[in-house]
Amino acid sequence: MSTLASRASLRRHPDGINRGEAGSGWLFTAPTLVLLGLFLVVPILMALWVSLSNWDGNGSPFTSAVKFVGLQNFGSVLSGGGLTEQNFGQALKNNAWYVLLVVPTQTVVALFLAIMVNRRVLKGRGIFRTAFYFPSVTSSVAITVLWLFLFSQSGAINNVLAWVGINGPNWFNEPSGIIQDGLAGLGVKSGPSVLTGNGFLGVSWWDWIGGPSVAMTAFIFMAIFTTSGTFMLLFLAALQNLSGEVQEAAMVDGASGWQRFRFVTLPQLRPTLFTVLTLGLIGGWQIFDQIYTGTQGGPAGTTTSPAYLAYSTAFQNQNWGQGAAIGFIVFVIIVAFTILQRFILRERKVSKRRMRLYNLPLSARDGGDKNDGDGNDDDPGMGVAVGIAAASQVNRAGGTV
Description:
Elements: H1 2-11, H2 19-51, H3 72-79, H4 83-117, H5 125-137, H6 140-150, H7 156-163, H8 178-185, H9 193-196, E1 199-200, E2 203-204, H10 205-208, H11 214-240, H12 244-252, H13 257-268, H14 270-285, H15 289-294, H16 306-316, H17 320-344, H18 352-357, H19 362-368, H20 380-397
Antiparallel strand pairs: 1-2
């Protein structure tokens, strides 16, 4: 009997999975792994080779005529000193302002909408949820065409602005930056020599801080309009999973609505917030179809994105190596920002000083950490308890948050 038990234990995986179960798992996942390998991993490896070669688009990139050039394509894009570097710098500047303005704004708008439609006192919540989400499921090409009509010189937006005495711009034909336009209205028509004479990636620092162009600003409005509904659903699902008992405990302690939101609700939304910010960041750096349909990079390249630049460089200019290199540079940028977001939004231990400040037992701090080696407080209840204590402490002190 002991011999059979020992044999059975040998057949069992260290994680408690039998060898037969493990084999069945690999068998069921094999079709998906094959498809991912053929249509995801293999194309990525091929694109990587193209970015390191001098392939011109004729024939196969794996023939003997195609030579390995190393990081030459990356060097031309990042430090070539010519038009290629300047075009990439302009595209990077456009997209950086786009992400900087779109991601925070759409996150705030989505969270606000989720809180509004999650209120039980709101009648017709289903109608509002559908209305807010509808732009997200509409074709981006259709939305772009609609936006071209709304923001045309004689479009509805300029007509509304005319009612309040504002002469609207020619949105999709205005290349100047909105910050530079604002400074020009104050009499500052050019920047200091230290900003105009120096720059990065072929673009002066004065242009870098000049803000997005008027044309790109219209695309920023469109992105917020079309994506906020999707992220609203993510926040709504997270809000509906929150325990009502925690909110009631905070109310008993005298926390106001804003204090409950800041110290109790928002910390529990941290995983969803990270997901929304990450998805927004990835989508922001991949903007392509709106540019292709609307302006194709104009006016004067002020709506060109790295994704569109990679397309035009490869498919229109037949410079496939540089086009692939631009794609991988954008990939590195997305990964870097995602890691940075994860670091900023990571769970942190509750310090002993804060535990004493809110009169919570110090033993709870040690009990909250699951001691998994990541140095983080893995018990969300501990953070909520501190949040309730903080809200009630502030409320008793009669101060503001």
